[in-house]
Amino acid sequence: MTFEESARLSTVPPSGIRRFFEIAEEYDDIISLGVGEPDFAPPWSARDAAIASLERGQTSYTANRGMRELRERIVDDVGSRYGLDYDADEEVLVTAGASEAIDLAFRAFHDPGDKVAVAQPCYLSYVPSATLAGADVVDVPTREADDFKLTREVLEASGASEAETLVMCYPNNPTGATMTRAELEPVAEFAREHDLQVFSDEIYAELTYEHDHASIASFPGMRERTVVFSGFSKAYAMTGLRLGYALAPPAAIEAMNRIHQYTMLSAPTTAQHAAVDALDNCDDDVAEMRAQYDRRRNYLLSRFDDMGIDCFPASGAFYVFPKCPWDDADAFAEALIEEEGVAVVPGHVFGAGGEGHLRVTYATSMSDLKEAMARIESFIG
What we know:
This protein is of the alpha/beta class. It has helices at 7-10, 18-24, 44-55, 68-82, 97-109, 126-132, 152-158, 181-193, 250-263, 269-281, 283-306, 329-340, 366-380, and strands at 31-32, 92-95, 115-120, 136-141, 165-169, 197-201, 226-231, 244-247, 311-312, 319-322, 342-343, 345-346, 358-361.
C-alpha cells in the first residue's frame, strides 16, 4: 500500500519561503532577513508568569475557548486600544496561534466552490487554507501605486463582489503597508454593499509607526460580518508559545469552536498564563520593542535609498518591500545567499502584486542589519 495525498492537497504547493531557507542552511555566516520572527525575547514579567504557572502545576486543559481570565483581558485590551466591544463569554476564542484561528474560520464558513477574495501580497497561509477548505480564491492584487492599500477600485476590478469572504491583513505582511480609518471606510462600504463577510488579520496591530491602528470591525455594520484575528507572537515576541485569538459574533465563535474542540481542544495553558501577565504588565516592553523596530525600519529605508533601490515606505509590521534590482527576483535571492550570505524572500511568493519585489525583515539586531546592508551594497555594486 502507498499513501496518496488527496486531490485537494495536491493543489497546494510547498511554502515559497522554504526553498530559500533550505539554500541558506547550506552556508555558514548567514544573516537571515527572511524570517518574520522578533529577535526579542518575551518580556520578563510574562516569562515569570509562565514559570510560576508551571511551578504551581497549572498544566491541565483550559476551557475550549480559553481561560476566562485571559478572554476578559483580551476584551478589555481591544476595547481600550481600538474601540472594539466584545463579550468575553461568547465572542472570543483563544487558539494555538493566530494561524489556527484563520484555518478554523476558513473551514467553518466555506463550502466547496465558495469564492474567497484575498487581498495580496499576503501572509502565505491564506490561499492554502482557503484551498484546503474547498473554496476558490479570487486574487485581489494591491498596487504599489496605491501604497499597497486595499482600494474600492481594485476590489471592483478583481471581481471581489462575487465572493463570500474578503480576507485582508493590515498592517500588512509582507509589504509593511497600513491603512488609516479614512482609507478603510470605502472597503467597509464595499463589504456592506455586497454582503461580504470579512476576515481581518490584525496580528501586527501594535506595530504601527506613523498613525494609530484602525480595525475594520469598528465601522458601522462591520462588527457583525467580521472575524478579527490577532495574538501574542509579534508584539509580545511570543512566537513559540503559540497563542492567538479570534473575535467575532457569537454564532461565528461557536462554529469555529466546534472544530477547535475536536482538533486542538484548547490553546497551550502555560502560554495563556503568560498572556494574562503580558496584557496586564508589559505595555512598556512593547513600546520599547516598537521603538527599536521603528529605528531599524528607518535605517533600512535610508540605506536602500542610498543604494538607489526604490523601496516602498513601509509604516507597519516589521518588513520593508524594496524593488528587486534584477528582473529575476528568485535568481537575485539565490545569488545573494550564495555570494554574500544574506537571505531575503522574493515578493512573488506572497501572491499577486508582489512580483518584482523582495521582502526584507528588520526583526533582527541593528548590528546584523548594518552588516547585511553592507553585503547587499557590495553585491549590487
